[in-house]
Structures are given as C-alpha cells and as structure tokens.
Amino acid sequence: MIKINSKLPNLGTTIFTVIGQLAKEHNAINLSQGFPNFSPDSKLLRLVNQAHQDDFNQYAPMQGILSLRETISEKTESLYGKSYHPETEITITAGATEAIFTSIAAFVRPKDEVIVLRPAYDCYEPAIELFGGMVVPIALEGPSFKVDWNGLKKAISPKTRMMIINTPHNPTGTIWSESDMLQLQEILKDTNIILLSDEVYEHITFDGEQHHSVSKFPDLASRSIVCSSFGKTFHVTGWKIGYCVAPKALMQEFHKVHQYNVFSVNHALQIALNEYLQSPEHYLELGSFYQKKRDYFLNAIQGSRFEAVPSAGTYFQLLDYGKITDEKDMDFAIRLIREHQLASIPISVFCGPDYNQRFLRFCFGKTEDVLDQAAEILQRI
Ligand code: PMP
Ligand code: GLN
After folding, report:
1. Mutate which of 14, 97, 262 for ligand 1 pocket (most atoms within 8 A of beta carbon)
2. Where are the alpha helices (DSSP H) in 81-137?
3. Ligand 1 neighbour 171 (Cβ under 6 A)
4. CB proximity list for 162: less than 8 A, separation 6 or greater
C-alpha cells in the first residue's frame, strides 16, 4: 500500500456536498447550496448554441477572448470609474473559485500570513494552507457582522502578505459601505499587502444600496485582485466561468499560474457572454429581481420563531433560531433535514472552531413554490 502524507490532513468534504447529499437522501427542500432553481434567460442559451454552431469549439486565448475583456473593461469603468486595460489587466477564469485559488497560489509563500474575516467562504483557507500560508482570522460578530477595525490593525504584521474580503458577503448578506472601504484603504496604505476582493455578488444589493467595489478606491485598486462570477450574475452557476481584474504587475504574476492551471476557459461561453453583456440591463436589474425574492421569503416566514436580520445583498438570508433551541447549528441543520425535510447551511463551517452562534443560512434564489414550501416548514417549527 502506498503511504500518503496528506497536505491537508484536517480537511473533510465541503459542506455543500455533505448537506446536498443529505438533502437528496431525505428528499428535502433545498435552500442550502447557493444556486437558482430556475433557468437562465433563453436568449443567453441561444447565444451559446450559436457559438457552438459557429465553431468556437477550440481553445480560447490564455487570458480570455479580447472582445469579452474589452466589454468587461467598459463595464467596470462605467460602474466603478476605474479603467482596467483589456490586454493586460483582465483575465477570464474558470469561475471565481479559480481566480481566488490562482491568486493565492501566485502570491502566498510558506509562512506568509493571510488575513481572513470569518465567517469566510469555504474555498479561501484550504488554498492558503495548501501553499504553506498562515490564516490570521478576524471574527465578524453577529448579528451586525461589522469589521473590528482595531482588531484588523492589530492583526497586521510584517508577515502579512494578503487580506481577503468579500462584499456582498456570503454567508451573512452584509455589504461594505463606502466608509468601510475608506477605513480599509487607510489601514492598508503604506503596506505591502495584496487585497483579494471577492465581489461575486456585486450585482445583488438591495434597498437602494450600492455595491462599493475596491476598484472605486484608487489605493485599494492599486493593490487588489477583484473577482467576479458570471454564474451568480446570469443564473448559470454550473458553467463555472468568471473573471478577475487587477493592475498589470499583479496580473502578470497571476498569469504565471493561470496559464498552467487551466490555460484557458470555455471558448463558446465567452463568445455568448460577450454578446449578452452588450445589454447592461441583464445585470443592472439583478438586485431588484432578488430583492423581490428576499421580501417574498421574509414575508412568508413572518410570525415564525425564526428571526431574520434582512439581507442587504447576495441571495442568502441568515435566520436566528435562538428562540427555538440551543443546539449547535450543525446539529440543528441536520435535524431540520432529517425531521422536517428542509436543508440550510450551518454557518459555523465558515467560522472556525470557537464559533457558537445560532444562525442558519437559507438561499432564497428559488421559485415562489419552493419558497412557500420552505416557509411552511419554518412556520411549523
Ligand atoms: N465566492 C463566493 C463568496 C461565493 O459564494 C462563490 C459561490 N459560488 C464563489 C466565490 C465561487 O464562484 P464560482 O462559482 O464562480 O466559482
Ligand atoms: N457559493 C455557493 C454557496 O455558497 C456554493 C458553491 C459550492 O458549492 N462550492 O452556496
């Protein structure tokens, strides 16, 4: 028998697979993993068919097709006022996940410290550990999940190589304000810290609030890789296609890994997405689309014993179940699936071992019939 010395000995299977399988076994309503249960726009599907017929079936350029990068450059400039050069500062990636992994691989060396705000989306920390980096966690305390700026200042050391932020935030649904970004800019000023900004829910903000991309803040933008996902924006999470933007010097290093990690990304999808992006309403209307779903869900669970702090962005809603039980969130989430056929995500999996709050995450990116069925169960508990 060959002997395996695991590089990640303490890591199990991602919560999305674990809960997804359990939900299937129990035939549960699935509000756990974040994906829409409805189809994307048929126009986008037709564009993909057309791109296949037009024979865009061979490798795309390593950085992505230039026309799509040009479109992204215009989009980013018009939304955030920052111009990224399409030839040197934009790359199409295999989902935001690849952009995040590649960034960490390109910049984090053994013993480098990486500041992570917990709860943190689950793909950050394994990648940091894989490359020998040290995770320096900072807790975001519920129910406000605000950043502890003093804690952040104290966490910075000469070994800090990178910090990872995520707004709108998965799993809490909070968003960073302009003043949060200015605080961060001030704290990172004169440091050598690279900022990895996960903005996959950039188009999903509610109640008239704007998304504040790091791209809008010159000193932050000069040190940042900003990640986006077409999966979230166009209801096509299964396509695993996204992009990142960064200043040329950072992007050059990013390419050194990207070119041997995936080389390039699905060609036909890039052709179709470029065409589809020519109509900005396809992404500009996403916030109000999901706000209706959030409000529908919140309205349907009103009067239940679950308490919501309304989500400000993403398609996730945290519900506090402290009035029902003091069970740990993992135990309660599993019981909800087994006994009530409703699947959610326990947020302790994004928080590390000391976490002890009573929240579950529900994805409301679903059709009303599914939200109704979920609400009916929540009302009963
Ligand atoms: N970051 C966050 C915060 C996410 O929720 C997701 C979810 N899928 C990703 C990154 C990964 O995006 P993609 O599916 O485009 O790889
Ligand atoms: N981003 C999705 C979520 O948070 C899941 C993606 C995945 O399954 N890895 O639910």
Report:
1. 97
2. 95-107, 124-130
3. no
4. 103, 104, 107, 108, 112, 114, 115, 133, 193, 194, 195, 196
The rounded distance, in Å, linking the Cα atoms of 64 and 273 is 12
- Give pTM, 2 decimals: 0.97
Give the integer Cα–Cα distance in Å for 149 and 154: 9
Helices then strands, each counted (H, E), the chain: 15, 13
CA of 252 to the centre of ligand 1 (A): 23
Alpha-helical segments (H) within 135-266: 149-155, 178-188, 218-221, 230-233, 248-261
Q: Could you give the angle at which helices 267-276 and 42-53 cross, rounded to 10 degrees? A: 130
CA–CA distance from 139 to each of 81, 153, 262 (Å)? Answer: 31, 13, 33
At 352, the pLDDT band (50, 70, 90 cuts) reads confident
Residue 45 contacts by C-beta under 8 Å, 6 or more apart in sequence? 39
Q: How far apart are CA 208 and CA 222, in angstroms?
A: 28
- Quote the CA–CA distance of 181 and 272 in Å, as a whole number: 34
Q: Does 94 sit in the ligand 1 pocket, CB within 6 Å?
A: no
Beta bridge partners of 166: 198
Would you say 63 and 91 are in contact if contact means Cβ atoms under 8 Å apart?
Answer: yes
- Determine the pLDDT at residue 353: 77
- Could you report the per-residue pLDDT of 111-165, keeping only the tens digit for each? 999 999 999 999 999 999 999 999 999 999 989 999 999 999 999 999 999 999 9
Written as six digits, the tokens of 117 are 């705000």
- The angle subtended at Cα 50 by Cα 46 and Cα 54, nearest 5°, is 175
Looking at the domain covering 42-279, what would its CATH class be? alpha beta
Q: CATH: 3.30.565.10, 3.90.1150.10, 3.40.50.300, 3.40.50.1010. Which one for 15-40+284-380?
A: 3.90.1150.10
Residue ranges of the domains in the chain? 15-40+284-380, 42-279
Nearest-angstrom CA–CA distance, 82 and 84: 6
Q: How far is the CA of 355 from the centre of ligand 1 (A)?
A: 23
Contact 103, 253 (CB under 8 A): no
Q: What is the rounded CA–CA span in Å between residue 154 and residue 148?
A: 10
List residues bridging with 137 in a β-sheet: 116
Atom number of ligand 2 nearest to Cα 170:
4
